[in-house]
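ESCALATION

Customer reports they have been waiting on this structure for their group meeting. Please prioritize. Original submission:
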Amino acid sequence: MVSTRFELIKQYPLCEDLISIHEFLGYTLATCRELGMVSHHGENLAVQALFLLDEVQREDAEDAYLNSSNLARKQGLGVKEILNWNKTKTRISKPVGTDVLKMIASNRALDTETLTEQEAAGYLLLAALRLNFAREQLTPLEMEFNYQLRVLEPDAALETGLHFLKIQS
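Update from on-call: job pushed to the front of the queue and completed.
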């Protein structure tokens, strides 16, 4: 099964195909679930990625994806990296506040915006870095995100994203 995942990822690298913001949210949550992340870690990562949409230009997000190996090297080394991750882990072990979810859901621009797959992966990596994910977590995150883009139907991703924001039951 693992080799099948790698083959699929190699055969279909991230590209310029467009996905909606709500689909991006759904793919992100599916990625985190498949990686076995604690549910609140994945939710906080997804929300952080959405916040970055307002802070980081699309070109910079795409550059982050294209230069992900350089980003991973800058993440830190050794004990400091572990301490930062442990601090963050405690903070993101709590559910995302309903007020935050309502604020995101009320942003009507998210209903019409789209991202390329590469931009989406860049935002996801930047969110992981902002939350002090360890270097070793970045590559599996990127690979699983690509895999989810290939195997999870867009409608299922959309439904997951909308359900998370409580826009749809």
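Sent to customer with the following note: Strands lie at 18-20, 114-116.
Escalation resolved.
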